[in-house]
Amino acid sequence: MDMNTEFPIGAAVIGLVASHRAMITKQIRAFDLYPGQDMMLMQLLGQPNQSQNDLRKALHVDHSTIAKSIGRLAKREIVTTTKSTQDKRITLVSLTPRGIDLAKQVVAIWHAAEETALNRLTESQKDDFLNDAKQITTNFDQKNA
């Protein structure tokens, strides 16, 4: 079975995601980060003091993945955790100053990946791609609801 012929959308999406993730992973490994931790750092840079549950939802991962990543990052003093003053059951996560510096470097890596992805595409092609990707995501989300 030829995946590209039988499932062209699926094959294209998987190929795109795999290529993007490979490019990002190669660069974040230089900072001793695991795949997915880069996205957590960027999320916390944009919105400090987030609950683990909010991070889980924003990053579309399960609770154990968030907990493991936070634990690893906390050991390296990249993030800190505190209990919410409003609800002691909620653990809030924030970047340390070291984490902020690292997150800014991760953002630069992601900006470079964006430039690479969009290289030689016209503005119209960029707009079409984004619109199509959003519509396909909506289609999947509605089916999964």
Automatic annotation (TrEMBL):
It comes from the Bacteria. Gene3D superfamilies: Winged helix-like DNA-binding domain superfamily/Winged helix DNA-binding domain. SUPFAM superfamilies: Winged helix' DNA-binding domain (SSF46785). Keywords: DNA-binding, Transcription, Transcription regulation. InterPro entries: HTH_MarR-typ, WH-like_DNA-bd_sf, WH_DNA-bd_sf. SMART domains: HTH_MARR (SM00347). GO terms for molecular function: DNA binding; DNA-binding transcription factor activity. Residues 1-138 form the HTH marR-type domain. The keyword Repeat does not apply. This is HTH marR-type domain-containing protein. It comes from Lactobacillus selangorensis.
